[in-house]
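Example is below:
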Amino acid sequence: MPGTGSGQHAVTLLVREQCHLCDEALAAVREVCAELDVPWTTEDVDADPEQRAEYGDRVPVVLVDGAEHGYWKVEPDRLRAALSR
């Protein structure tokens, strides 16, 4: 699922199974990252106790270059702006 671009940014989407907001965020991240040719990955917060403790109540979480960009809902225009810098 990750993009294959060689841009300077990278996106990580923190998700969990059976999360409808995660499904919506996944679609938005996929679209924006494909449009801008930015590589992206997903990680299951429940697979890592530290991530679950830190992000568990705020999933989905978007990380841009390892820093928290947003949670619960992806704002495509805001994500595009962050990735275009």
